[in-house]
UniProtKB/TrEMBL annotation:
<dbReference type="GO" id="GO:0008168">
    <property type="term" value="F:methyltransferase activity"/>
</dbReference>
<dbReference type="InterPro" id="IPR029063">
    <property type="entry name" value="SAM-dependent_MTases_sf"/>
</dbReference>
<dbReference type="InterPro" id="IPR004033">
    <property type="entry name" value="UbiE/COQ5_MeTrFase"/>
</dbReference>
<protein>
    <recommendedName>
        <fullName>Demethylmenaquinone methyltransferase</fullName>
    </recommendedName>
</protein>
<dbReference type="Pfam" id="PF01209">
    <property type="entry name" value="Ubie_methyltran"/>
</dbReference>
<keyword id="KW-0474">Menaquinone biosynthesis</keyword>
<dbReference type="GO" id="GO:0009234">
    <property type="term" value="P:menaquinone biosynthetic process"/>
</dbReference>
Length: 253
């Protein structure tokens, strides 16, 4: 089934998933936190670290910059950034205290400091024009995209860079159907291997449904431009299954 038109996509996603996003998803991620990184590596057939490396290659950073990682999870992005440039001032925000607890443990074990904020990323508790770089990886399918991207645009400094990566809805219907079949299989296998709790296991169908109502790489580029970002570019892998977007806040209003 074709997704709704781009203009009404967010309203349809909100109607379909609002209750899950608001009331249920946090419990699932609270359980997933303890094995999140391992589960991703299993589900991605060992390619998870490769996806992270590919994403990091798109991120522009300079010494002393202030960086915000939105939906930071276990701080994989913040840690990778600090390994590359230890002088960065890295902030992490996530709604899951459990995920950030694991993330803080991961950062501390490597001698890195990442400033953590727990809260709803749809309303970022930071001033306007505050960050040089904002990153967001593998979370937008669970968010009100236009709200979060608007907040990211607000907190970026003029000329600041937004780097985004996520699983996307392939444009080719054959690729899409093969992709969904693979995801259903690997989610079942991964949940069995890592011993997912019922709170996490019941969301397997949701993950497929959320992706089916998400955006293609081209559609997400349009959304970024409509919200006011410029210099929007995207690289994709696996025929559009995963996309790496880069966008810039205009230097002048």
């Amino acid at each position: 089934m074709a997704p709704p038109p781009l203009a009404s996509r967010e309203a349809v996603r909100e109607e379909r998933f609002s209750d899950v996003w608001s009331n249920e998803l946090n419990d699932a991620f609270a359980d997933i936190a303890r094995y999140y990184d391992r589960a991703n590596e299993i589900a991605a057939l060992g390619l998870w670290s490769t996806f992270l490396k590919r994403f990091m290659q798109t991120v522009d950073i300079k010494p002393q910059q202030k960086v915000l990682d939105v939906c930071a999870g276990t701080n994989a992005i913040g840690i990778a950034l600090l390994k590359r440039e230890p002088t960065l001032d890295v902030h992490a925000m996530d709604r899951s205290a459990e995920m950030q607890t694991v993330g803080q443990q991961n950062a501390t074990a490597l001698g890195f400091q990442i400033k953590s904020t727990i809260g709803d990323v749809h309303t970022l508790p930071f001033p306007d024009n505050h960050f040089d770089v904002v990153t967001l990886q593998f979370a937008s399918r669970h968010l009100r995209v236009r709200e979060v991207f608007t907040e990211i645009l607000r907190v970026l400094k003029p000329g600041g860079h937004f780097h985004h990566s996520d699983m996307l809805r392939p444009r080719n219907p054959i690729v899409k159907n093969l992709y969904y079949a693979y995801l259903k299989t690997c989610l079942n296998f991964t949940s069995l291997i890592v011993g997912s709790s019922p709170a996490a296991t019941k969301f397997k169908q949701y993950f497929i449904d959320a992706l089916d109502l998400f955006y293609t790489a081209e559609e997400l580029s349009i959304v970024l431009r409509e919200l006011g970002f410029v210099e929007v570019t995207v690289d994709t892998v696996f025929h559009g299954m995963i996309g790496f977007h880069r966008a810039v806040k205009p230097a002048t209003p």
